[in-house]
Give the backbone structure.
Amino acid sequence: MISPRYHREIPQRYRLEAGKCKQCGNISFPPRLVCPKCKSKSFETVQLGREGKILTFTIIRVGPDKFSKETPYVVAIIELNDGVRLTAQVSDCDVDKVAIGDKVKLVFRKIQDEGKSGLHCYGYKAVLT
Amino acid sequence: MLNEMKSRFAGKDVAVIGVGMTKFGELWKKSLRDIFVEASLKAIENSGVDHIDSMYVGTMSGGLFVGQEHIGAVMADYLGVAPIPATRVESACASGGAAFRQAYFEVASGHSEIVLAGGVEKMTDGADVTEALAAAADQEYEVYNGITFPGLYAMIARAHMHQYKTTREQLAHVAVKNHKNGSMNPNAQFRSPVTLEQVMKATMVADPLRLLDCSPVSDGGAAVIVCSVDYAKKLKKPYVKVVASAQASDTIALHSRESLTALKCVSVAADKAYKQAGLKPSDINFAEVHDCFTIAEIVVTEDLGFFEKGLGGAAAENGSTAIGGKIPINTSGGLKSKGHPVGATGVAQIIELYEQLTGNSGERQVKNAKYGLAQNMGGSGASCIIHILEAV
Ligand SMILES: [Zn+2]
């Protein structure tokens, strides 16, 4: 069983589907109903590329209860090659070796367990390339 | 510009005539409603009014912290002022500033004569505080991926250090100064000074931010009484005048911002506030700013126009922001040392302005202060509320 809330976000979390404005070309991730740049309401669905670089990051040493068993872990703001920015964990790395400007690739990973039933929830994490 | 604004804003001149707050800290014996009522009774008594016409209550998350919503009604009931209108106002950590702004509008519009603006939060009753606070960020695209509030500000800090060569020591200087100020504030949660070394060696929370870079988890309440300047004159009590009230918003997710080292909601709201008051940043004598984390004070003092972009860290280090410096920042101790019961914070900032501008700040008094500015911020900078108060 998948919760409706989780199910709605699957196109973004699994496939990186974004909304490209038909008027100005700005890409919104996640998709929006109104383009923040030109206010157009007309979009086409595009799939983001998975490669990008780290703009800034932190190492979470004290996490919320849900992630407390995973500390320390790196969370970064990543700019993908098509200009879209997002927040993701940087996985499979020595947390003390990550740096601004590092090249990364988004991969499919389990992110967390939802609610009391503990549903596995998936999405994207970054790995250094 | 002043005349242009005045002609567009035809409301009444607004005053603050009384203030009251609880001590901030871990108030084990007091409930959410007890805390609010205590602060409100003090404000009402301090102002000398015999009634209030309506009230606003700033609270970030009664629901997540103690399971209580419908806060306006709860507080009017327990303050014993029902059936007056009572509304809860929420803008995350800027809820208190937003409540004060609603009271300002209600008085300026002439709709009510006397309005109470309060704020309250009860954070130590056992909720997962990290998770509750994270509700002010983008749940689906930031929090889902494991970010925390210290983590968001840590990412701002790292970007600022990278771009402007802000140092780890400069961040620590903010904490040292604010703890020193808080040590002189009887209502502060932490009344003990800290050393640079203590801050630099504190437990790491989210690199590069350590425990002493973070505002604490607090319970507390604050309330002020707002009325027209005309009414305040009749009461023959000390009052201060509200000369600007401004607000701005930005993207909910930090990653969507144009800049990771500037807070646009702050600069936009500040521009509006300075225009409304007919003032420049250099006219402001002191300010209470939203130092939820040390880096926030550095970025905010730049974006308010007090320091050139990139020099906020140096300003903290060279004493420009200390009492007696070029522009004292967070004379109350700020969120860092006074405490940060989220919804109460914006109102407590107004209280510090009132006390400074009426000459009641004791050891931490700023000499000859005419204009004080309060900057209250929601989330990682998705909302900002600024007020400027003038001594009369
Ligand atoms: Zn567009």
About this structure: Chain B touches chain A through 33 residues (CB under 8 Å). Chain B has two domains: 12-128+218-235, 149-214+243-391.
